[in-house]
Amino acid sequence: MSEKLEIGSIVEGKVLRIKPFGAIVSIGDQQGLVHISQVANSFVQDINDHLKVGDMVKVKVLSIDEENHKISLSIKEALPKPERPARGDKPFRQHKQAQEPKTNPAEEYFKPQTVNPNADFEEKMREWMKQSNERQTSLNKRANKRSY
User: What is the distance between the terminal CA atoms of the chain, rounded to a whole angstrom?
Assistant: First the structure.
């Protein structure tokens, strides 16, 4: 089956059929599949936006399964690699966290309560309820800010 083709070689082929999952490409007397993920360097929603029946395309041979007579092809791999900007070209972007320290709400919630140790039980309960209500109000305010 693969007398002429070698894995990694780039050859020219003609698009015979287009399916939702890819394109069937004729390479000489053989056919192979270009999966939709191998059509372009960007995301391909509809393969018909990139290929038409009869188009001549350069493809790279990814794999050859002689037992099942299947050839896997890639147009993306045959394209020149897209150039990436050098790291020095982009200005360094600082994160918001680095600019302003963030307080952890758990630290405030779990900080030790200040209750007079000499007070009676009723006074301790009133103070505890007051602090509890203040904390709950604070948490509710934070939750309301996030919901907007």
Answer: 63
Residues 61, 70 contacting (CB under 8 angstroms): no
pLDDT in tens, 2-16: 457 888 888 999 999
Q: How many CA atoms lie within 13 A of 42 on its CB side?
A: 5
Q: For residue 10, what are the β-bridge partners?
A: 60
Amino acid 56: pLDDT:
93
**CA 131 to CA 145: how far, in whole Å?**
21
Distance CA 81, CA 51 (A): 20
- DSSP designation for 36: G
Domain ranges of the chain: 10-78, 102-146
Q: Which CATH architecture has domain 10-78?
A: Beta Barrel (2.40)
Q: What is the radius of gyration, based on Cα positions, of the chain?
A: 33
What does the angle CA 15 – CA 19 – CA 21 come to, to the nearest 5 degrees? Answer: 110
Q: Which of 40, 109, 50, 110 is nearest to 76 (CA)?
A: 40
Dist. CA 112–CA 135, nearest whole Å: 12
